[in-house]
Design a protein that fits this description.
- By secondary structure, the chain is of the alpha/beta class.
- It has a single domain, classed as TIM Barrel, CATH 3.20.20.
- The chain is built from 14 helices and 12 strands.
- Helix 4 runs parallel beside helix 9, helix 5 packs across helix 7 and helix 12 packs parallel to helix 13.
- It is globular, with a radius of gyration of 20 Å.
- The structure holds manganese (II) ion.
């Protein structure tokens, strides 16, 4: 496995010199200032590569793009679809020219990763991110006031959400709306209540089956080019892996991945296996997914969650990397088996890039103002633990 680290660009308070001390050897980043649908130009890609090389004393390079965002126009097949597909292809072509081979994306409608609390206090004194279903329902029912929301929750949960909402101050309500509307980490796209309502509207006519068709259509349009360019696309799972705000989510389970990867049967169309996202469902077995989808896994996000219950949906928090309900040792053992198979087959991508996906805020992270989920010390701790497990299993983390 190659140890990588997400870096949000020059404004990231975690410096490239910190990344080196953490022991990572590759950088995961994006042109975060670009909006979904923009073309990524050669100059801007080259500038970001130079920043990484210079800032790390020539030791780190940009090895995974996370993410090249898929626009709502593509997900909903709205007006200007062809222009958005052309832009996506142009960006892929420019990335390939720059020598970058792995491109992560996701196909979540409207909302990307979603948490209700970015700084939940843990017993050890640090903080972690949390998704609380009743608090989320309070947002949906009483802040966003989505007309169909009362049909989407059981009565008991609505009662809990009503009480939760009543107990919140105006500042609490604003903070909750901001947390949910935060958009992609580091992204310039943030939702207000009005823009969120407008973005939900096209999904009145898009159910899960239609969204899957749109995803297959998108891949059918870009995968032939990705094959020619030698690129590996990898789809990140839904986070959390269940429907939100009445929107279909269709990359939440092994069956969801099997559907897409079978429909577009190319090594250029693959999976970002995120144990943190998938682990928020009790019916997802992440180690089994590594065995099932191994050859198509192009990128690994290693993180752990602890769920409040085994129901779907459920509340959960982001636990320490080895402490949650996903058996991280079993996942890493399965990944090492897959890498050994690739070496036997002579595959050039035998070292799968992985990164500690999120970390709790501990020690000097507290108050440091880093991106939610992306503190320096908490991730360093996670990476060090993962590296230790890999070594214990007889594997190698490069
Ligand atoms: Mn992830």
């Amino acid at each position: 496995m190659q140890q990588t680290w997400r870096w949000f660009g020059p404004q990231d308070r975690v410096r490239l010199s910190d990344v080196r001390q953490a022991g990572a050897t590759g950088i995961v980043t994006a042109l975060h200032h670009r909006r979904a649908g923009d073309v990524w130009g050669d100059d801007e890609i080259a500038q970001r590569q130079r920043e990484i090389l210079t800032g790390s004393g020539g030791t780190l390079k940009w090895c995974v793009v996370e993410s090249l965002p898929v626009s709502e126009t593509i997900k909903t097949q709205g007006a200007d679809l062809q222009a958005h597909l052309d832009a996506y292809r142009a960006s892929l072509t420019a990335l390939a020219r720059a020598g970058i081979e792995t491109v992560c994306y996701n196909f979540m409608p409207v909302l990307d990763w979603t948490r209700t609390d970015l700084n939940a206090r843990m017993g050890h004194g640090g903080t972690a991110m949390r998704f609380d279903l009743a608090t989320f329902a309070a947002f949906d029912l009483f802040i966003l006031a989505r007309p169909a929301a009362p049909d989407d929750y059981p009565d008991a949960l609505i009662d809990t959400a009503r009480a939760r909402f009543a107990a919140m101050s105006d500042a609490d309500r604003d903070a909750l709306a901001r947390n949910i509307g935060a958009g992609l980490p580091g992204s310039v796209d943030h939702w207000t209540l009005d823009t969120l309502r407008a973005a939900l509207a096209p999904y009145d006519r898009i159910d899960a089956a239609q969204l899957r068709r749109n995803h297959v259509d998108f891949l059918s349009e870009i995968v032939p080019l990705a094959e020619r360019l030698g690129l590996r696309l990898c789809c990140h799972p839904d986070d959390p892996p269940f429907d939100l705000l009445g929107l279909p989510r269709t990359m939440s389970t092994a069956a969801d991945y099997a559907h897409i990867l079978d429909a577009v049967d190319s090594p250029a169309a693959g999976m970002t296996l995120c144990t943190g996202s998938l682990g928020a469902r009790a019916d997802n077995d992440c180690a089994q997914m590594v065995r099932d989808f191994g050859p198509r896994i192009h990128f690994l996000h290693l993180r752990n969650v602890t769920r409040d219950s085994d129901t779907v949906p459920c509340s959960f928090f982001e636990d320490e990397h080895l402490s949650g309900q996903t058996d991280m040792v079993a996942v890493l053992a399965a990944v090492l088996d897959e890498e050994a198979r690739r070496r036997e087959q002579g595959r050039l991508d035998a070292d799968i890039p992985m990164r500690p996906d999120h970390g709790q805020e501990i020690l000097s992270d507290l108050g440091a103002g880093t991106q939610p989920g992306y503190p320096a010390v908490g991730r360093l701790k996670g990476l060090a633990e993962l590296r230790g497990v890999i070594a214990g299993l007889g594997g190698q983390a490069t």
